[in-house]
TrEMBL record:
Cellular component, GO annotation: mitochondrion
Encoding gene (name): Echdc2
UniProt-recorded name of the protein: ECHD2 protein
Highest taxon listed in the record's lineage: Eukaryota
Membership in a protein family: Belongs to the enoyl-CoA hydratase/isomerase family.
GO annotation, biological process: fatty acid beta-oxidation
C-alpha cells in the first residue's frame, strides 16, 4: 500500500459482523512466557506504527467492538467513523495489563490527557456517540440493518478525499503528523518544507489552471 501510487485512501473494516477488532486473544497470550509476550507486543506496536506512517489518509470504520488492541488499531488511523452502537475502550487494566500498542500515546493526543487517563485507568467502554462527543471519532452514525453503517460513512468520507490533489493530501498529512510533535516554530518549518515539495507538481499547475478556467481540476498525482 505504501508504494502503490494508485492508492489514495485506505479504509480499515472488519468482515466479522458486530466486531471491528476485539484485541488480543488472551487465551493465546496466557500460554506465552514473559519474553514471548514482550516480543508479541513489540511486533504489534511496530504494526500500528507502520499503519500510522502510511502516506495516504486512513479511515477506521468501527461498526462493532473495538477493544484493547482493536481501539489501538483505530487510533493508528487518521480518521475514525463509528456506529453509534459500537463499543470502544482500552480495557487492558481490567485484565492486569496496560495498553502496549500505542494506546497510552495516541489516545491522549486524540482526546486530551485527562480524558485519556480516565478511560485507561478505569478500562471503561464507551459507545459511538460518547466517542464522538469526546472527539475520539470524527463521525457517529446510526447502525443499519446490514451492520455496516460506519463503513458506508467511511466510504463517503473517502470519496470526498479522492478528488483532491494526491501529493498535496500526502504532504498535508506529513506536515500534521510531524508538526504536532514539535513546537510551533519547528512545525512551521516542517510545513514550509512540505509546501516546497508540492510547488513543482503538475497538480498544483492544474489546480491553478482549473480555477482560472472555472472548471473542475483533473489531478493525476504528479
Amino acid at each position: 500500500l505504501r508504494f502503490d501510487e494508485k492508492v489514495r485512501v485506505v479504509v480499515f473494516k472488519s468482515e466479522v459482523k458486530g466486531v471491528f477488532c476485539a484485541g488480543a486473544d488472551l487465551k493465546e497470550r496466557e500460554k506465552m512466557d514473559d519474553a514471548e509476550v514482550g516480543l508479541f507486543v513489540k511486533r504489534l506496536r511496530n504494526l500500528m506504527d507502520e499503519i500510522a506512517a502510511l502516506p495516504v489518509p486512513t479511515i477506521a470504520a468501527i461498526d462493532g467492538y473495538a477493544l484493547g488492541g482493536g481501539l489501538e488499531l483505530a487510533l493508528a488511523c487518521d480518521l475514525r467513523v463509528a456506529a453509534s452502537s459500537a463499543k470502544m475502550g482500552l480495557i487492558e487494566t481490567t485484565r492486569g495489563l496496560l495498553p502496549g500498542a500505542g494506546g497510552t500515546q495516541r489516545l491522549p493526543r486524540c482526546i486530551g490527557e485527562a480524558l485519556a487517563k480516565e478511560l485507561i485507568f478505569t478500562g471503561r467502554q464507551i459507545d459511538g456517540q460518547q466517542a464522538f462527543s469526546m472527539g475520539l471519532v470524527n463521525h457517529s452514525v446510526p447502525q443499519n440493518d446490514e451492520g455496516d453503517a460506519a463503513y458506508q460513512r467511511a466510504l463517503t468520507l473517502a470519496k470526498e478525499i479522492l478528488p483532491q490533489a494526491p501529493i498535496a493530501v500526502k504532504m498535508g498529512k506529513l506536515a500534521i503528523n510531524r508538526g504536532i510533535e514539535v513546537d510551533i516554530a519547528s512545525g512551521m518549518a516542517i510545513e514550509g518544507m512540505c509546501y516546497a515539495q508540492n510547488i513543482p507538481t503538475r497538480d498544483r499547475q492544474e489546480g491553478m489552471a482549473a480555477f482560472r478556467e472555472k472548471r473542475a481540476p483533473r489531478f493525476i498525482g504528479k
